[in-house]
């Protein structure tokens, strides 16, 4: 919230993007309790806004919270005129759930007039601050959507409803898909490839559609905050490097549901548990950076000889390699790829990190051993 309030002191418009039910509405209402709130999901309100944008906005001379602004993008051009004539800061607070289209529309109409923030589902730190204690396997199943914790929902049923609503409502707004069951199969297959290098042809073969269609569907999942891609870090290190992104989900609870994992017993035995732990930790790092209003600056590294680092954090000219392990016990073999990368980049790597499922915090040479609950310490 602090970043949101600070930006509202510097910009006439603040735009908060994020998946549905991630807490955007709750956050902006809490941050700006005196501002009028308008939900553009309501059909009657949306129709009025589209038919008479100027008259609609004139109802709120001191600005307003406009929720789900992508439902009435026509308002953005009129907001531009208003904020150009009114020097007030924090006049309009916008929220949206469709990333690509809304970012493009905002950039065109409100360039230089709005700050952009992203809000993903709750982090482990936020759960801890709310006095919610859960084990690692529970975190993998429950994910981070606030309602699951607030209303003590069964995560399997909650994510089933979430996914059905997404397919029936958001998906139809974004694209005309003739075979919904084929798209659903595609999403399930994506969940089975968490942490893997993206292979459009391979997924297309499994689903039975072209790689062009898979590329389009990937963009849809990304724009609606279902998945994200971790880009590779590559320089001329004298080796052939992998330059395709890796695939991850924006919420591990949804991924676990799509994989058919319903309880901690199943999770403990599932062959993809390690991939889900990796996904969870990477999300923690991304959320930490986003909550500070910063780009993640996170990448992965892999060369043609199989040397791989789960995460590279770039800060200035420095590169911090981070390995993630689902094991609760440290093994010195975990340091192999970290040591390789340290030698490869030399002085650009001042320290590295190994994040695991254990509880010890320790310095092992240049490597900081951290439990997954303290993963973000490596970014400080």
UniProtKB/TrEMBL annotation:
Pfam family, one: DUF4143
Domain DUF4143: 168-326
Boundaries of every AAA domain copy: 12-127
SUPFAM superfamilies: P-loop containing nucleoside triphosphate hydrolases, Restriction endonuclease-like
Name of this protein: AAA family ATPase
Organism annotation: Amoebophilus asiaticus (strain 5a2)
